[in-house]
Amino acid sequence: MATKEEDVQDPRIPKIASSIRVIPDFPKPGIMFQDITTLLLDTEAFKDTIDIFVERYKGKGISVVAGVEARGFIFGPPIALAIGAKFVPMRKPKKLPGKVISEEYSLEYGTDKIEMHVGAVEPGERAIIIDDLIATGGTLAAAIRLLERVGVTIAECACVIELPVLKGREKLGETPLFILVTSDAA
Amino acid sequence: MSGNKQDEDPRINGIKTKIRVVPDFPKKGIMFQDITTVLLDPKAFKDTIDLFVERYRDKNISVVAGIEARGFIFGPPIALAIGAKFVPLRKPKKLPGETIFEEYELEYGNDRLEMHVGAVEAGDRALVVDDLIATGGTLCAAINLLERVGAEVVECACVIELPELKGRQRLKGKPLCMLVEYR
């Protein structure tokens, strides 16, 4: 697994990268799945991961951390707590109990939806969107659209891992992407 | 500090007032306890985590196991603050590596909770975290998973308890720490 060139100076990155486990043929043959659960078992690597994001976003006027279900729920809340922002879960359909707005996005076969509670965010807020990994960028692009529809500005999308060969970055339009680790496996 | 409701602490009321009750979700008659509104209040969210961290930081907890999905919101901040591993306990087929599972009953039918093999070791001292305890079925399955691999479950920690559903009695004798009751 390669580390991003501009992060080669941050001495914490190689340990984070090496704590991620690659599982071949999950969820289907040919896919090399990037498993962050092993990162969560390494207390130093997990703390370093959160610290890098917090150092980047603290004091930047970010009032919303939006996390994509379910692995975005693991990384988003610690960041939100450390920078004093709200945490907003973005969920699969029918999970959120209150009134929601939804955004559809394409899958390899068919579509899916991502939902957010009405009233969770307010126009004019600045948000970051967190997920463990960006692959095709479909889910993150839908999350961006959902927040922008209610007048929120997305300062950045932040993921632990990028699979650059899938060109997910291109789906994010003007929104910048910050990642810690790239993987050529896809 | 008692192993029950943290009712002396002034932060509790602030948390309680932030929980939103949504009637008839997921079906008629259920008063759903929505914690997403707590997460929108940075002070209430921080207080929630702080209360648990203060309780557990000197208890040599090596594992915080969080139940998908809302246990993933509360578990990791606690784990990070007390220096424990975080272990996600998930619905079937989500975890990519080799897993063990525990079945538990729903109102209609069964479901399963899974954990990665090797995540937890014999002798680990574990907390189980979820947003809410209702019947206790999921928490009981979590306790079983952890005990099967030789961990000691020290306590279950939930933000909310629905005491009328008597979930506390299904925890195999393990203590429950909760912050807010809903009757």
Automatic annotation (TrEMBL), chain A:
Subunit field text: Homodimer.
Matching HAMAP family: Aden_phosphoribosyltr
Organism: Eruca vesicaria subsp. sativa (Garden rocket)
Protein name per Swiss-Prot or TrEMBL: adenine phosphoribosyltransferase
PANTHER family found in the cross-reference section: ADENINE PHOSPHORIBOSYLTRANSFERASE
Reactions it catalyzes: AMP + diphosphate = 5-phospho-alpha-D-ribose 1-diphosphate + adenine
Keyword terms, alphabetized: Cytoplasm, Glycosyltransferase, Purine salvage, Transferase
Top class in the EC scheme: transferase
From TrEMBL, chain B:
Keywords, comma-separated and alphabetical: Cytoplasm, Glycosyltransferase, Purine salvage, Transferase
GO cellular component terms attached to this protein's record: cytoplasm
Domain Phosphoribosyltransferase residue range list: 40-166
GO MF entry, a single one: adenine phosphoribosyltransferase activity
Catalysed reactions listed for this entry: AMP + diphosphate = 5-phospho-alpha-D-ribose 1-diphosphate + adenine
Subcellular location(s) per record: Cytoplasm
Listed Pfam families: Pribosyltran
EC annotation from Swiss-Prot or TrEMBL: 2.4.2.7
InterPro entries, per database record: Ade_phspho_trans (IPR005764), Adenine_PRTase (IPR050120), PRTase-like (IPR029057), PRTase_dom (IPR000836)
GO aspect biological process, one term: purine ribonucleoside salvage
Associated pathway: Purine metabolism; AMP biosynthesis via salvage pathway; AMP from adenine: step 1/1
Protein family (similarity comment): Belongs to the purine/pyrimidine phosphoribosyltransferase family.
PANTHER family: ADENINE PHOSPHORIBOSYLTRANSFERASE, PHOSPHORIBOSYLTRANSFERASE DOMAIN-CONTAINING PROTEIN
Subunit: Homodimer.
Record protein name field: adenine phosphoribosyltransferase
